[in-house]
């Protein structure tokens, strides 16, 4: 599929773990002690490398410094934020080094915007601010790409996923409101969270994530925000096996993402 602009995006999933990362501190479970590098996870975040040379971050949690150093990122032109939990925004001070005389634009919902102004007032307010907080529920243009916020629920907390081109990025989701499926519809590439194989009050389980993939019907789905209850191999095998039970998912490529993976090219 070719996008209207002719541009493409290389989405790198910088981190793919839950709020504690993997390994957890002081945990000797099989996943946390695994020697498989695929079981080492920073907190979930991503970077969009646009073919016009600009970079946009998706979230900036406590591991963002290590992720950006690993990938050799030297400039950031914008940030889109899903919500204001620590594992998604507490790395914001590390991004001050990307300030080049013009505040870096941040886009988020109203709940997150108010929290950012409370936590980081010296960074986001005043004449010396390093970031501009833009609160919106409407589509917006950033680095020549149109982003459409996708309202989703993180338990009882309203947060954002984002649609851009033929892709949708969703993290920390428990439920997707009916109207949001209209925004997601037609996405060929889907990034979606899957925490564990048991139910959780604020995150999708493996079974629930598979149900959402069945409903959205992307060509390829990348799983993120995993915890340490199972290792990479188990999770990949779970989805490889269980997707065969449904005609809607048999031919969908479902990838248990690992840190640093590049998605298929996104057309915008």
Please outline the helices and strands.
Layout: E1 8-15, E2 45-50, E3 55-58, H1 64-71, E4 78-80, H2 86-89, E5 104-108, H3 110-119, H4 121-124, E6 131-135, E7 140-142, E8 145-154, E9 157-164, E10 167-169, H5 178-184, E11 189-193, H6 206-216, E12 220-224, H7 232-242, E13 253-256, E14 261-262, E15 266-267
Parallel strand pairs: 3-4, 4-5, 5-6, 10-11, 11-12, 12-13
Antiparallel strand pairs: 1-2, 1-14, 1-15, 2-3, 7-8, 8-9, 9-10
Oligomer: single chain
- Whole-angstrom Rg: 18 Å
Note poorly predicted spans: none
Distance N to C terminus: 9 Å
> Which class in CATH terms?
Alpha Beta
Element order, helices and strands?
EEEHEHEHHEEEEEHEHEHEEE
- Helix share bin: 10-25%
Shape by Cα distribution: globular
Number of strands: 15
Mean pLDDT, as a whole number?
A: 98
> Number of helical segments?
7
CATH superfamily: Ribonuclease Z/Hydroxyacylglutathione hydrolase-like
What summary fits the major beta sheet?
A: 8 strands, mixed
Strand content: 25-35%
- Class by alpha and beta content: alpha/beta
Q: How does CATH name the architecture?
A: 4-Layer Sandwich
The CATH topology is Metallo-beta-lactamase, Chain A
The number of domains is: 1
Pfam family, one: Lactamase_B_2
Protein name: Metallo-beta-lactamase superfamily protein
InterPro entries: Metallo-B-lactamas, RibonucZ/Hydroxyglut_hydro
Domain Metallo-beta-lactamase: 42-225
Brief description of this entry?
By secondary structure, this protein is α/β, with parallel strands linked by helices. It has helices at 64-71, 86-89, 110-119, 121-124, 178-184, 206-216, 232-242, and strands at residues 8-15, 45-50, 55-58, 78-80, 104-108, 131-135, 140-142, 145-154, 157-164, 167-169, 189-193, 220-224, 253-256, 261-262, 266-267. A hairpin with a 2-residue loop joins strand 8 and strand 9.
């Amino acid at each position: 599929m070719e996008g209207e602009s002719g541009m493409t995006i290389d989405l790198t999933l910088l981190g793919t773990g839950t709020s504690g990362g993997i390994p957890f501190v002081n945990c000797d479970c099989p996943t946390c002690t695994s020697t498989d590098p695929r079981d080492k996870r920073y907190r979930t975040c991503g970077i969009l490398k646009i073919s016009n040379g600009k970079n946009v971050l998706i979230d900036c949690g406590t591991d963002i410094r290590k992720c950006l150093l690993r990938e050799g990122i030297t400039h950031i032109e914008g940030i889109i934020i899903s919500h204001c939990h620590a594992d998604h925004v507490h790395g914001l001070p590390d991004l001050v080094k990307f300030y080049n005389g013009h505040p870096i634009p941040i886009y988020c919902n109203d709940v997150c915007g108010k929290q950012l102004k409370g936590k980081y007032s010296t960074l986001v307010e005043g004449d010396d601010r390093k970031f501009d907080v833009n609160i919106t529920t409407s589509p917006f243009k950033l680095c020549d790409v149109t982003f459409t916020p996708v309202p989703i629920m993180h338990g009882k907390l309203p947060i954002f996923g984002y649609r851009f081109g033929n892709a949708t990025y969703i993290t920390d989701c428990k439920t997707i409101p009916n109207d949001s499926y209209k925004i997601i519809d037609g996405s060929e590439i889907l990034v979606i969270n899957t925490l564990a194989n048991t139910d959780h009050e604020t995150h999708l389980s493996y079974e629930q994530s598979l149900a959402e993939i069945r409903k959205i019907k992307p060509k390829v789905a990348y799983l993120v925000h995993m915890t340490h209850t199972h290792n990479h191999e188990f999770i990949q095998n779970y989805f490889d096996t269980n997707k065969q039970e449904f005609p809607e998912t048999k031919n969908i490529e479902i990838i248990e993402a690992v840190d640093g993976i590049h998605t298929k090219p996104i057309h915008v």
